[in-house]
Write a structure and sequence with these properties.
This protein is an all-alpha fold. It has a domain of 46 residues. Helices cover 73% and strands 0% of the residues. The radius of gyration is 18 Å and the shape is elongated. It starts with 8 loop residues before the first helix and ends in a 12-residue tail after the last helix. The relative contact order is 0.14.
Length: 85
């Protein structure tokens, strides 16, 4: 019977923290980028700033979903879909 080798608790917490920080950074940057893009679009069209915020929120939610799928697909410390990242 082969021995089951599991990482220690400190390693698990450290890798989860790295992944969470990476995912949070990606979600926040996507929100800000989408919000700025929404502001650029809504200003000339005289649309509500709430539409820009809504677009930012949708973009951030999609970034969060993508990051979770990336983690589920390949158990790494990254929220990237690229292999080896």
């Amino acid at each position: 019977m082969s021995d089951l080798s599991l990482p220690d608790a400190q390693t698990v917490v450290k890798t989860a923290k790295t992944y969470a920080r990476d995912l949070l950074e990606r979600v926040l940057s996507t929100f800000l980028q989408t919000l700025i893009g929404g502001v650029v679009v809504t200003q000339p069209l005289d649309a509500s700033m709430w539409y820009a915020a809504l677009m930012g929120g949708i973009g951030a939610a999609l970034a969060l979903l993508k990051g979770l799928v990336a983690r589920w697909r390949d158990l790494t410390n990254s929220a990237s879909l690229a292999r080896g990242v």
